[in-house]
Fold this sequence. Notes:
mainly beta, globular
Amino acid sequence: QVHLVESGGGSVQAGGSLRLSCTASKYTFGSYCMGWFRQAPGQGREGVAGIDSRGNWNYADSVKGRFAISQDNAKNTLYLQMHSLKPEDTAMYYCAAACNYVTGSFNYWGQGTQVTVSS
């Protein structure tokens, strides 16, 4: 069974940085179809950063220039480097992998890691 496990969340002050990690078991990250999402309390899930089925790197407008997605193939780990964090970045962050071409979503999701940014 595939497992994605996120780590690296925490509480920081506005302007700070965090790096989230997502490690996969029984699944190998490729060159496309992986990403990071977030969900704040009372809000829907939104895409933050990801690599789509064509290998294009995409970022939400709200995080462009502040967040960067990367991967370490040797460690089979996906990262989300976050700089200049704002209180509105507070959310549960999830990694996802493997495009589901039927639903348009992803087949595999992690359990999430909490990011809290205080002003």
